[in-house]
Amino acid sequence: MKKLSARRRHPLAALVVLLFALAATGGLYAAFAPAGEAKADQASSQSLAIEEGKKLYDVGCSSCHGTGGQGSSDGPSLVGVGSAAVDFQVGTGRMPAQQPGAQVPEKKKIYSEDEINQLAAYVASLGSGPIKPTKSQYDPSGADIANGGQLFRTNCAQCHNFTGEGGALTHGKYAPGLGDVDPKHVYEAMQTGPQNMPSFPDKVMPEQDKRDIAAYLKTVNSKDAENPGGYKLGGLGPVVEGLFAWIFGLGALIIVAIWVAARTAKAKKS
Fold first, then answer.
1. Measured between alpha carbons, how far is residue 216 from residues 122, 123, 164, 181, 224 in Å?
2. In a domain, 151, yes or no
3. Residue pLDDT, tens place only, 170-192
4. What is the predicted pLDDT for the residue at 58?
5. Measured between alpha carbons, how far is 210 from 207 in angstroms, rounded to an integer?
6. DSSP characters for the chain?
7. How crowded is residue 69: how many other Cβ atoms within 10 Å of its Cβ?
8. What does the pLDDT look like over 95-115, one tens digit per residue?
9. Residue 183 in contact with residue 136, Cβ under 8 Å?
């Protein structure tokens, strides 16, 4: 007892107890407080993004899509389109549109990445819809290019042609070329179905298949891509390319035959 009493009266005893109490308090705080604070910070950040996004929306979008995103005669409703649609349309410069027409063309974007995220947050708050994908969802690294090519030729080549060169549709509409499109925007287009394009949600086309298609497009449109068939003629496919060769090749042979016959006939007369 005397030894224990002496230890309690040691000059450093109070300091040891204080340090132990601080360590225990810090451990309990680390175990319980950060999760709640992180959620609160995240909610505050999201709320701020929505608030800033609404300001941008009121200036640049409300004149066509309505003050609450309900749509008007000049623009469709944005309720339920989701953040992926906003990131695609604004990130490719299609929105805000310069003028009405059969189809809104791609152009240089006018909003920064932060502003696009804020606009996407605000529109997403109007109603649930496809969410902007993460890099791991659309990154073509390690994807199955062969499967992507098969899927693209089955589902997309009818409009975009075999290698994504693009093509004409009806009434002034067209399928744009996909040669220089960011894989993220390729993925978002399949998610949301912009303009004349059908949508391919995950239930119809799984996430991995969309990655494979993005990888296929990046590969066939790469500057280093080889074309074993020779001149690709816009990547229109074997039928069109074969018809081209047949018409021009046969035409050249006919012209040569006519020239030879004319020379022969001329030689006989002389």
1. 33, 31, 10, 12, 14
2. yes
3. 888 999 999 889 999 999 999 99
4. 95
5. 5
6. -HHHHHHHTSTTHHHHHHHHHHHHHHHHHHHHHHHHHHHHHHHHHHHHHHHHHHHHHHHHTHHHH-TTS--BTTB---TT-HHHHHHHHHHTT-SS-SS--SSPPP----S-HHHHHHHHHHHHHTS--PPPPPHHHH--TT--HHHHHHHHHHHTHHHH-TTS--EE-STT-EEPP-TT--HHHHHHHHHH--TTSPP--TTTS-HHHHHHHHHHHHHHTSTT---TTSS-GGG--HHHHHHHHHHHHHHHHHHHHHHHHHHHHHHHH-
7. 22
8. 998 888 888 999 999 999 999
9. no
CA 48/CA 100 separation, integer angstroms: 32
Among the listed residues 198, 163, 192, 190, the one whose alpha carbon sits nearest the alpha carbon of residue 177: 163
Q: Which residues of the chain have pLDDT under 50?
A: 1, 4
CA dist 113 and 124 (Å) reads 16
- Cα–Cα distance measured from residue 106 to residue 129, given in angstroms and rounded to the nearest whole number: 23
CATH number for the domain including 212? 1.10.760.10
Q: Which of 67, 101, 132 is the last residue of a domain?
A: 132
Total structural domains in the chain? 2
d(CA 13, CA 256): 110
Cis peptide, bond prior to residue 201, ω within 30 of zero: no
Q: Amino acid identity, residue 148?
A: G
CB 34 within 8 A of CB 42: no
Are 102 and 152 found together in one domain? Answer: no
